[in-house]
What we know:
By secondary structure, the chain is α/β, with parallel strands linked by helices. About 45% of the residues lie in helices and about 15% in strands. The protein contains 15 helices and 11 strands. Helix 1 packs across helix 8, helix 4 crosses helix 5 and helix 9 (about 215-225) crosses helix 11. The radius of gyration is 19 Å and the shape is globular.
Amino acid sequence: MQDYFLNFPNNKINSNITSDILENSKSLNFHKSLIxxxxxxxxxxxxxxxxxxxxxxxxxxxxxxxGLNAFKVLGASYAIHQILKxxxxxxxxxxxxxxxxxxxxxxxxxxxxKKCIVYVPENTTDLRIKAISDEGAEVHKLNMNYExxxxxxxxxxxKNNWKLVQDTSWDNYEYIPSLIMSGYLTHFEELENQxxxxxxxxxDIIFLQCGVGSWAASCIWYFLNKYKxxxxxxxxxxxxxxxxxxxxxxxxxxxxxxxxxKTIMAGLNCGIPSKNAWNIINSxxxxxxxxxxxYVIKATRQYYYPYADDIRIVSGESGSAGxxxxxxxxxxxxxxxxxxxxxxxxxxxxLLFNTEGATDINDFNKIIK
Length: 369
């Protein structure tokens, strides 16, 4: 069985609540109003691009966003801000998380002096739990996987009248996940100015790591909305053992993946793709691939031990997945058809996102030693 799926998207944006919210997003203005705001850097790894045989390799590095080591705070902070504009009486926010999103929700809730309750799945490490609780949240670990934890929190929030801030959507729960997605637009807007500083280089191909798909869909929507069919080619990258988007492409509809959910890519170890994300991904992604943990280990080490004059990038396991996908495509001859499909060659300008830093330092140190 091959580890890639070629998609032939229609490059159309459907008119729905998600698109409306994304269209009206003012997330960059909001984030700039925060004292913690910092524009995450865009690195050009010229030595690595030469080694890999591509023209440029750009990396948008989110490892120090707001001091939380991950991009997730962009979505959670904007969503909670928008919620409280209309529902100031909310007293408790809750969410299910594998780490970074829960920490972001806790951080944003604390800023507004609101209580935060977070539920995490069984494989969540102690350090990830501590990072969430250090932001003031009450954290509960369940003997469940990520998708089951989301289902549990959905019922728990309804029963207790808590405001659920979940970064995945389902029938009749699309508004808040769409707000989260619109918060992510901040770093795509930042990217436009940063690319101008790189001699107005065009981005030809983007590799996007994917969990439930909300962030990946936000990126796809941004480039579809701005460039239509002239957008960059986009490849979705997932762990082999939790490849919800890949298996949904194979099925023709979104499904829960059949893997064993054992992967070091904790932030991508999810279940069924988000409903509103799946529609966008299906309309604007060119390929979906699966990667093993071995490629992520290689990518994490590649960032940390750079070639020549390239800058060192500290990247957690999920943060390295985009580079891991690129390494697999370039090194595995069975991906030649995919390379042709996305026109990946020596003239390509490739964009990656380091979506997290060393969010679990113990796991990170094991990899780089």
